[in-house]
Amino acid sequence: MTTYTAILPSPVGELQVAVDERGVLLRIDFQGHHQSADGDRQDARRCAHVLAQLREYFAGERTEFALELAPAGTGFQQRAWRALQQIPFGRTASYQQQAARLGKPRAMRAVGAANGRNPIPIVVPCHRVIGKDGTLTGFGGGLPTKRWLLDHEAAVLARRA
């Protein structure tokens, strides 16, 4: 399978998106974490639909993504990532709440580990999960990026109110 990649400059740094031959989103990597494999090809045209939606998100014009996703992960990770997609734009949930949604209320650490392996951050919004006491914890893009994304979403909602 050929993977097509493109780079998007963004307010949180350079993002690399990767799609398959059908345009299905496979991953988004933060600056310094770009993953390239043999056979990956740079092709902004094949990634244009993802780049456009990410630009709209960063411009405050998009609060939901309409992309076909194919994140690679275990069954539990897949369920955890689907639960992330249920957290509304501009809102947060705790790891405990996410674990409860999965029917595993004591699995906060497993949920945290699954979120940490989320290959499609922003679109699958792991940045919306915070500690039970409201603290920001772990994020592949770094805590300043997590804070920026949460503040961005809150500001978008405030402008729309």
Detailed description of the structure:
The chain has 161 residues and is α/β, with parallel strands linked by helices. The protein has two domains: 4-58, Double Stranded RNA Binding Domain; 75-160, Arc Repressor Mutant, subunit A (Orthogonal Bundle). The chain is 34% helix and 14% strand. It is built from five helices and six strands. It has helices at residues 48-58, 75-84, 95-101, 108-116, 143-160, and strands at residues 4-8, 15-19, 25-30, 41-42, 93-94, 129-130. The strands form two sheets. A four-stranded mixed beta sheet has the order 3-2-1-4, with helices on one face. α3 (95-101) packs across α4 (108-116).
CATH class of the largest domain: Mainly Alpha
| CATH-assigned homologous superfamily of the largest domain | Winged helix-like DNA-binding domain superfamily/Winged helix DNA-binding domain
Overall 3D geometry?
globular
Total domain count? 2
Structural class: alpha/beta
Q: Using the CA coordinates, give the radius of gyration.
A: 15 Å
Largest sheet report:
4 strands, mixed
- Return the average pLDDT rounded to an integer: 92
Number of strands: 6
> What is the helix content?
25-40%
Write down the secondary-structure element order: EEEEHHEHHEH
State the distance separating the first and last CA atoms. 45 Å
Strand content: 5-15%
The CATH topology of the largest domain is: Arc Repressor Mutant, subunit A
Number of helical segments with 4 or more residues: 5
Which spans of ≥5 residues are poorly predicted at pLDDT below 50? none
Quickly give the CATH architecture of the largest domain. Answer: Orthogonal Bundle
Strand order of the largest sheet: 3-2-1-4
